[in-house]
Structure formats: C-alpha cells, structure tokens
Specification:
The complex is a heterotrimer of chains A (245), B (228) and C (224). Chain B is mostly helical and 228 residues long. Chain B has 9 helices and no strands. Chain B has one domain: MetI-like (MetI-like fold, Orthogonal Bundle), CATH 1.10.3720. Chain C has 224 residues and is an all-alpha fold. The chains are: A alpha/beta (245), B mainly alpha (228), C mainly alpha (224). Chains B and C meet through helix 4, helix 7, helix 8 and helix 9 of B and helix 2, helix 3, helix 4, helix 6 and helix 7 of C. The structure holds adenosine-5'-diphosphate and magnesium ion.
C-alpha cells in the first residue's frame, strides 16, 4: 500500500530523512516512535506529498507520489491525515468542516454528504456539536472532529501525527478509543505517537526512528520486549518512565 | 459666537461633504483593486513581480501624501495629458496611488496570517490550489483584514481633506471659503471637525462589531497605526 | 521624453537642505512630545479615575477621527482668539504632537494589553504597587511589541509634518513646492523631495530595526 524506496529529505543542509526504505501493507497498522525532531512528522507528510522529497520514490497504492506529473490532490483525497494541532478550519462549523471536501473534491451531493457527516460525527460521539465552531470545542472534541473530517473522504489510508500530544489524559483516552474503533474496521494506518502503551496494544508493527534513520522495526512485542539496538532501549526506558508519572 | 454661519451655509457645506464622500468612495474602490493586485503579487513570491510590488509599496509608504497630490495635479497629469487636470481626478489618482500601497500591505499580512497548518489540512483533504484559496485562505484572510481595511478607509476619509489644498471644493475647502468671507473660523472648523468625527467614529464602531465574531483569530491583527 | 534638468536641483540643494532641517526639527520635537502625551494618556486610561479615563478616551477618539489639517487650522486660527499667540512653527509642533500623541497612546495601550493579565495578577500578589507593576513587570515585556508600531508613528510624524507648509512654515515640502512652481520644474523637485523624505523615513525605519534587535538580545529568546 505504501512503499518508501531510498527516500531522503533535507531542509537547507539538515538531513531529516536518510535513505528510508519501508513497505506498509494493506490493513496494516504501523506505529512510528522516536525522539522529537527525529523526522516522524516529515515521514508522514512525505506520504501525501505535503513535503516534497529530495531523493527516492514513494508509492501509495502503486502511484508514485514523487513523480513530477502526479495528481497530488487525487492521492491526498485517498489518504487522510490528522494533525497534532487539529487544524480545523476556524471559520467553518463542525458540519461544514466535515462536508467541505466531500462536496468540493468528491463532488458529493450536499444532502448525501450531510448524512454521511452525521454518521461519522455519531461515530466519534459528537452529534450534538454540529453547529459549533472549532473554537467552541475542547481539544479532544476538536481532534475527533478532525478525524471525522478525514474519514468523510473515505480514505484508504489514515495517517496520525501525534494526535493526542496536545491533549490532557482524559481527552487523550477519547481520541485513542476513536482510533481503536477504526483499527478494528481494518483501516490501513500509520500512527506517530508518544503513547507507548497505545502503540503496543494497537500496532502490528513498530518503527523506531532516530535522527532520520530507521534504527529498528518489527512486531510490537519484539520492539518493546526485546529491542536489539541500544538507542531503542534508551529511548523506550525514558518513554515508559514518562508514561508512568 | 456665530453658529448661524453654519445654518446659512448649510447647503454649501453639504455639497462639500458630498464631494468628500464621493472622492472617498471612488478612491477606496480604486485602491482596493490595485492594492489587492499588489498584495497578492507580494505574497506570491514570483521574483520580478514580487520585487516590483515591494519597491512600489515601500517607496509610496515613505513619502508624504501631499507630495503626491500636488505633484500629480501640477506636474504629472498636465504633462501626460497636455492640459490642466481637474481637481477631482488629480485627487483620486493621488489617493489611489497612496492608499493602494497601504491596502497591499494589509492584504499581504492577512494572507500570511493563515496558518500553515490550515493550508496543510486543506491540501491533505485534496482541495486544489483554487479551492484552497476560495474556501479556506480568502475567507480567513478577509475576516482578519476587515478591521485594518476599515481603519485604512477612515484614514482615507480624513486624508481627503488634503484635496482642499489644490482647490477641490470638498468639505474642508467649503468651510474655508465660508470663513475667508466671514472670518469666523472657529465655528466652521468645529462644525467640519464634527462632521468628519461622526463619519469616522461611526465607521470605527461598526468595525468593532465585526471583531466579535466567534472564529476571528485575534493574534494576527494588523498592528495599530500602520497608517493614519 | 521629459528633459530632466539636474542643474536646477543642484542650485537649489542649500535651499532644500534648509527646509529639511525645519522638517526634522518639527518632527523630532513633536515625536518626543507625542510620546510623552501618549504615556500620560495611557496612564490615565489604565490607572486613572473614571473622569480621567473619560477625558483620555474622548481625547483619543476625537483626535483620531478628525483630519490633522483641520486640527492644524484650528490651532492656527482659533487659539489667537482666546489669547494664545504661537508662531506658526509652534502651532505646527503643537498640532502634530497632539495628533501623533493620540496614536502613540493606542500603540502603547495595545502593547500593554498584549502582556497577559496573569502577569499583572502575579505581580500584584507579590505586593508590588500598581505603578511598580507597570514599571517593572508590564513595561519591560511590552516594549518589544511596542517598538515597531512606535517607529511607524515617528515615520508618520515626519510625513505629516509636511502639512505645516499650509500655515506658512517654510519646511521641506513648502520649499519643494515653491522650487517646482518658481522654476516650473515639477519632476525634478518632486523626485528630489521624495528622495529626501525617503532618506528621513528610511533612517527611522533602520533605527527601529536596530532597537528592536537590541531588545531581543537583552530580553528572553524570541518565542519558540
Ligand atoms: N519546514 C521546515 N524547515 C526547516 N526545518 C524543518 C522544517 N520542518 C521540520 N524541520 C526540521 O526537521 C527535523 C525533523 O522534524 P519533524 O519531522 O517535525 O520531527 P518530529 O515530528 O519527529 O518531531 C527537525 O529538526 C525540524 O527542526
Ligand atoms: Mg512532529
């Protein structure tokens, strides 16, 4: 479903991704972990072409998103992404946030898209908020609307970039539960997260990224119980310590 | 005190006010069009065009308005057309050149105020460039620019008083004509100031209402007093 | 093609420089006075009693919402009627100070408001007086936000000072206009005049930048 072939990315001489090779299969759930600044967000944003790469190729559903003539808008409409800062459109109501792209990009009928939005908002538990503006929502509610907004495009892949790190523990749980529901439905997902227990419980596979390189990858049991690299061990030790306090 | 001067010359003063308002309306329309073009050019970062916009905006903003008015009326327009220019046209051209530079800056900072995260989100949903501009960037930018645009319009209304100096009989000049005859300057000046005040203060209160919309993002407001 | 005659300008340079000095003199004095007026007004508005607040707000609104030219004429024509005789240049400085002061008070107020009210509460809770809070806590934080718009107010003062030529002060604009009419050389004089104004305002813009950086270095690092 997603393939990275020798992908490198740098910002003005700063190498953020170094020769990444990875394949993510359909219906797989992959967690990306690693210290902050190691390139996790960049990795995700390369997948839907928000960040152009310097070298290598990325295939999404057999289409090369790094090709010059690729229709990025088409790829993007099939790949949902949820950001750390929600990024809901502040001038649109919850309903309008969720229906905008289906109407304008998918050319869905307004009624149809509203019905779909109602289903999705029910799924994330926010039916009572349809006429509210983003600023009137709590962080957890805003993030769930953002998830509904992405799902409204009926994506084949969902990307999550630290979806809970701007939230307090209770809201974090609401959002994690929503993501778990999706996982059960067989969505292909790539999740960048600091929630180690969540990663462990949810992911089929865990990728540990450090300084732009994949240090280690494997099943969650393997990475968490039996990490091979010292860097991974150090990282996990401090990450779990943080989660305990 | 000689307040009867005002009653006696009321029609004359109102005629002046009408010219003031007409001048302000024509000038603001013109400067909006040119200002939007320049602002978008500067925002666009298309090398040559953006460079031109920067040069225009920065030089116009560092020169007094009165210099434009007088130069255009006595120098540029007569030279270009070969005949004396009408007061009204000269004033309009000067105000449009001057105000469009300020409007361009307002437009640019409004466009820049749209957070990268919102643009990324719009891209990620598959909205194309035009759709992003139409449904996300412009609505956000416009609602944030409105207060600054209104205060620019208020500045323009006050600035139209400068057209009196080349002889256009707008509100200020009508007053002058009256007190040059009667020598009762104080009353006339207070009355004229009052008329300007009602219009400008009213507009600023109207725009304050706009700022209370729920989704307005207050952080990106134009700094106070970009222009007067 | 217009036949641009540089010799006219070269001959008039001393004449224009004299005007530039007057323009500078008026702008500098007015800017200083305007800053003091702004401080007083903002002090009235934030700490003053109800009547003082009302006076301050009325002052700011009346001045900001009427043209400078009218204010200038008013001071020039109406003050003598109540026995206050000022030379034209004095009228110019007074009008420009009063006008710019109202705008500067708004700049200062916006800067102060930008400092979170928790800072104010924390400082009061530590037992600092209102005035100490203002001087020691609010002002040092607000200054960085204030400097750029303050700079543009000083630039405006330079540009606005050109209006004093309508009350017979022979400033830079007056001389540019006079030179242009006398020699019938509009392009030459106006381009030169524009350039001189650009140098003056550009200098202030440069100084503003330097000051802004100064406060950045001394203060905390800029926001992450
Ligand atoms: N637009 C950008 N311009 C320059 N540097 C950037 C940009 N975006 C990210 N970086 C840098 O790239 C590195 C990786 O960033 P990121 O992918 O956001 O890391 P992570 O999500 O793992 O915290 C960081 O050092 C960051 O400072
Ligand atoms: Mg990140």
């Amino acid at each position: 479903m997603i393939t990275f072939e020798n992908v490198s990315k740098s910002y003005k001489g700063l190498n953020v991704l170094k020769n990444i090779n990875v394949t993510i299969a359909k219906e797989e759930i992959v967690a990306i972990i690693g210290p902050s600044g190691c390139g996790k967000s960049t990795f995700l944003k390369c997948i839907n072409g928000l960040v152009p790469v310097n070298k290598g190729k990325i295939f999404v559903d057999q289409i090369d998103v790094t090709a010059k003539d690729v229709d990025l808008n088409k790829i993007r409409s099939e790949v949902g992404i949820v950001f750390q800062q929600f990024n809901l459109f502040p001038h649109l109501t919850v309903m309008e946030n969720v229906t905008l792209a289906p109407i304008k990009v998918r050319k869905m009928k307004e009624n149809e898209s509203k019905i779909q939005a109602l289903h999705l908002l029910e799924k994330v538990g926010l039916l009572d908020k349809i006429d509210k503006y983003p600023e009137q929502l709590s962080g957890g509610q805003a993030q769930r609307v953002a998830i509904a907004r992405s799902l409204a495009m009926q994506p084949k892949i969902m990307l999550f970039d630290e979806p809970t790190s701007a939230l307090d523990p209770q809201m974090t749980q609401e959002v994690l539960d929503t993501i778990k529901t999706l996982a059960k439905e067989g969505m292909t997902m790539v999740v960048v997260t600091h929630e180690m227990n969540f990663a462990r419980e949810l992911a089929n596979r865990v990728i540990f990224l450090s300084r732009g390189q994949i240090i280690e990858e494997g099943s969650s049991d393997k990475i968490f119980d039996n990490p091979q690299s010292n860097i991974t061990r150090e990282f996990l030790k401090s990450a779990f310590k943080k989660e305990l306090v | 005190m000689h307040w009867t001067d005002i009653a006696e010359n009321y029609d004359f003063l109102m005629k002046g006010l009408f010219i003031t308002l007409k001048l302000a309306m024509v000038s603001v329309s013109g400067s909006l069009i040119i200002g939007i073009i320049l602002g978008v050019l500067r925002y666009s970062k298309l090398f040559l065009l953006s460079w031109f916009a920067v040069a225009y905006i920065e030089s116009v903003r560092s020169i007094p308005l009165i210099l434009f008015i007088v130069f255009i009326h006595f120098g540029a327009l007569p030279y270009l057309t070969g005949e004396p220019s009408s007061f009204f046209v000269s004033a309009c051209v000067a105000f449009i050149i001057f105000t469009s530079a300020y409007i361009a800056e307002i437009i640019r900072s409004g466009l820049n105020s749209v957070e990268k995260g919102h643009i990324d989100a719009a891209k990620s949903l598959g909205l194309n460039r035009m759709q992003r501009l139409t449904y996300i960037i412009l609505p956000l930018a416009v609602s944030r620019m409105t207060p600054a645009l209104v205060s620019q319009f208020i500045s323009l209304i006050k600035d139209t008083s400068l057209a009196s100096t080349i002889g256009l009989i707008e509100l200020t000049r009508s007053g002058e004509i009256i007190y040059e005859r009667t020598y009762h300057e104080t009353e006339i000046l207070i009355f004229i100031a009052f008329v300007y005040f009602v219009i400008c203060f009213g507009l600023s209160k109207l725009s304050a209402l706009w700022e209370t919309k729920p989704y307005m993002c207050t952080e990106h407001r134009e700094p106070v007093g970009a222009n007067q | 093609m217009y036949n641009f005659d540089t010799s006219v300008i070269l001959e008039s340079i001393p004449f224009l420089i004299e005007g530039m000095k007057i323009t500078l003199f008026i702008s500098v004095i007015s800017s200083i006075c305007a800053f003091l007026i702004g401080l007083i007004i903002v002090f009235f508005r934030t700490m003053g009693s109800k009547p003082l607040k009302f006076i301050a707000v009325s002052y700011v609104e009346i001045i900001r919402n009427t043209p400078l030219l009218i204010q200038l004429y008013f001071i020039y024509k109406s003050l003598p009627a109540i026995g206050l005789m000022l030379p034209p240049i004095g009228c110019g400085i007074l009008a420009l100070s009063v006008y710019t002061g109202a705008f500067i008070s708004e700049v200062l107020r916006a800067g102060i408001n930008s400092v979170a009210s928790e800072q104010y509460q924390a400082s009061i809770s530590l037992g600092l007086s209102k005035f100490q809070t203002f001087r020691l806590v609010i002002f040092p934080q607000a200054i960085r936000i204030i400097i750029p718009p303050l700079g543009s107010q000083f630039i405006n003062a330079i540009k606005n000072s050109s209006l004093v030529s309508f009350i017979s002060v022979t400033d830079l604009f007056y001389r540019v206009y006079k030179g242009a009419v006398d020699d019938f050389r509009f392009f030459e004089f106006f381009i030169t005049g524009a350039l001189i104004y650009m140098v003056l305002t550009g200098t202030v813009a440069l100084l503003t930048n330097i000051f802004e950086n100064q406060f950045k270095i001394q203060g905390r690092t800029a926001k992450a």
